[in-house]
Amino acid sequence: MLKLTPQDHEKVKAGEVEVVKLLADPIGVEEKYIMAYIAIGKNSRVLIETGPKKSFDRLKESLKEVGIEMREIDAVFLTHIHLDHAGGAGLVAKECNCPVYVHPRGLPHLIDPSKLNAAAERTLGEFVFNAYGPAEPLPEEFARSTEEKVYSIGDVNVKVIFTPGHAPHHQAILINGVLFPGDALGEVTVWRGSYSPTTPHRTLPPMIIDSIRKLMFEKVNSIAYTHRGIIIGKEEALKQMHGEIEQIRTWLEVARIHSKECKLDVECYKKYLLLADPLYKDLMESGELEKSKLLQNSIRMSIDGIARYVQGIK
């Protein structure tokens, strides 16, 4: 696997547009785990991701720190509807009085999030579900279904790229060479250069790999990850894409080799991943995993998802 050059940027310039990182951890959790981003043009403001419902006040504070009120946002784009990326979309839409662009397969479940919230409560675990809060319904008047095309929001051009795998309703966003991959490229602890897959139950790893290959053909100069920051540089971006494919394949191989022994025991798989994946080992030995309960839970779900996929458990 390819470790990245450690970076920790607050913003990145993309032509005439500036992309600024916003902290979107839920109130009561300080882990630098969830980021939203504001793309600032000369006459328009585009928000990418909202974070969960319980990050709404923190998101407003983060916007104010860069001199923007939520009512000044012209549009919101979501990579997918999972609670950590979109749980606060309904609250944000009502505050900014602006359209929210969502993949067509996910949009109905954000307008009526009852099934989304029930599934999240089952899979996230009590601590994380309570930390995020249930998704707030998105009022229909603000809901917009996306297509694979470029949207012009004032002087900010937003390209939508469908990237299924992590979820069937997953899409990546590209603005002037800055890629917002959602969970398509895993979670990257940018200040260490280490990353891990995001493959919870019902994700399709081969489809994720196909989506990553699709992103390789885009002109990407920087990547702004919802989890956990910005990397700058074409070579670093491609390195991470190639590395994530290798990492997913490694996790699949570990699960295949040890499926009879470990079954669905996540702790059993962890000891073998420490031997097979140097980036997972780095997160463990550096103490980064110990610092973040949200990252710990994500890795737990990702190992469980890989194990269930290998064993054909639906």
Description:
The radius of gyration is 18 Å and the shape is globular. Helix content is 40%, strand content 20%. Helix 8 (234-262) packs across helix 9 (266-276) and helix 9 crosses helix 10 (278-285). The chain has a single domain (11-310), classed as Metallo-beta-lactamase, Chain A, CATH 3.60.15.10. The longest helix is centred in the C-terminal third of the chain and has 29 residues, at 234-262. By secondary structure, the chain is an alpha/beta fold. The chain has a seven-stranded mixed β-sheet. A six-stranded mixed β-sheet has the order 8-9-10-11-14-15, with helices on one face. Strand 9 (156-162) and strand 10 form a beta hairpin. It is built from twelve helices and 15 strands.
What is the CATH topology assignment?
A: Metallo-beta-lactamase, Chain A
Helix coverage percent: 40-55%
Helix count from the secondary structure assignment: 12
Order of helices and strands: EEEEHEHHEHHHEEEEEEEHEEHHHHH
User: Unreliable stretches, pLDDT < 50, 5 or more residues?
Assistant: none
- What structural class results from the helix and strand content? alpha/beta
Overall mean confidence score, pLDDT: 97
Q: Just name the CATH architecture.
A: 4-Layer Sandwich
CATH class: Alpha Beta
Question: Whole-Å distance between the termini?
Answer: 29 Å
Strand proportion, as a percent range, falls in 15-25%
Rounded Rg: 18 Å
Strand order of the largest sheet: 1-2-3-4-5-6-7
The gross shape turns out to be globular
Protein name: Metallo-beta-lactamase
Organism: Ignicoccus pacificus DSM 13166
Domain Metallo-beta-lactamase: 33-227
